[in-house]
């Protein structure tokens, strides 16, 4: 009986299915991370983060106003914002002494619009020490009726910050 002789197989080449799936999973995770970090999925995290920081600083100013029993204000400019505290002895607004409330500049491409009692106001082009703040919080921690709208160039998202009925702040995201 003759046995059929098979040729010897050489070393196998190629990838197994498991190896291919692992590589695809790694590529998917890395590309997902890149999309989220650059905000390509529709949400600009940098704008949202700036709105978070500004909301937290406004809330801090309201807390300070209550604790110190004095008025605080927020003076907005096209390039940034500055917190002020009312000095009752000098009878004038002074820059807030707290480092968390120091003057800030908007990140590149971010702009702000301010509405008081539903009307848009024109922000001063230059910093003027005599210019009073547009937004205020009194010694009871209550805000005047304002609405801040933050936008980034080329992004349809607008972040809105306004006083809430419960005395805090509320946020809203709107697409143009």
What distinguishing features does this structure have?
176 residues, alpha+beta, minor pseudopilin epsh fold, 5-stranded antiparallel beta sheet, 10 strands
Q: How would you describe this protein?
A:
The longest helix has 24 residues, at 45-68. The model has no long low-confidence stretch (mean pLDDT 86). The chain has one domain (45-175): 3-Layer(bab) Sandwich (minor pseudopilin epsh fold). With 176 residues, it is an alpha+beta fold. The chain contains two helices and ten strands, in the order ααββββββββββ.
In summary, what is this structure?
The protein has 176 residues and is α+β, with helices and mostly antiparallel strands.
What is the secondary structure topology, with strand pairs?
Blueprint: H1 17-38, H2 45-68, E1 72-77, E2 80-87, E3 92-95, E4 104-105, E5 110-116, E6 119-121, E7 135-137, E8 146-152, E9 157-163, E10 169-175
């Amino acid at each position: 009986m003759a046995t059929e002789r098979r040729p010897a197989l050489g070393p196998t080449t190629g990838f197994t299915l498991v190896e291919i799936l692992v590589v695809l999973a790694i590529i998917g995770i890395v590309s997902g991370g890149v999309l989220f970090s650059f905000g390509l999925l529709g949400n600009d995290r940098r704008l949202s983060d700036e709105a978070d920081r500004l909301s937290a600083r406004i809330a801090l100013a309201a807390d300070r106003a209550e604790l110190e029993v004095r008025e605080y204000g927020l003076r907005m400019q096209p390039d940034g914002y500055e917190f002020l505290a009312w000095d009752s002895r000098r009878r004038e607004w002074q820059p807030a002494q707290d480092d968390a409330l120091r003057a800030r500049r908007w990140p590149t491409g971010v702009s702000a619009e301010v509405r008081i009692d539903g009307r848009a106001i024109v922000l001063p082009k230059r910093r003027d020490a005599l210019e009073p703040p547009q937004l205020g919080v009194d010694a009871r921690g209550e805000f005047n009726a304002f609405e801040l709208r933050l936008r980034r160039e080329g992004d349809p998202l607008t972040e809105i910050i306004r006083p809430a009925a419960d005395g805090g702040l509320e946020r809203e995201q709107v697409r143009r």
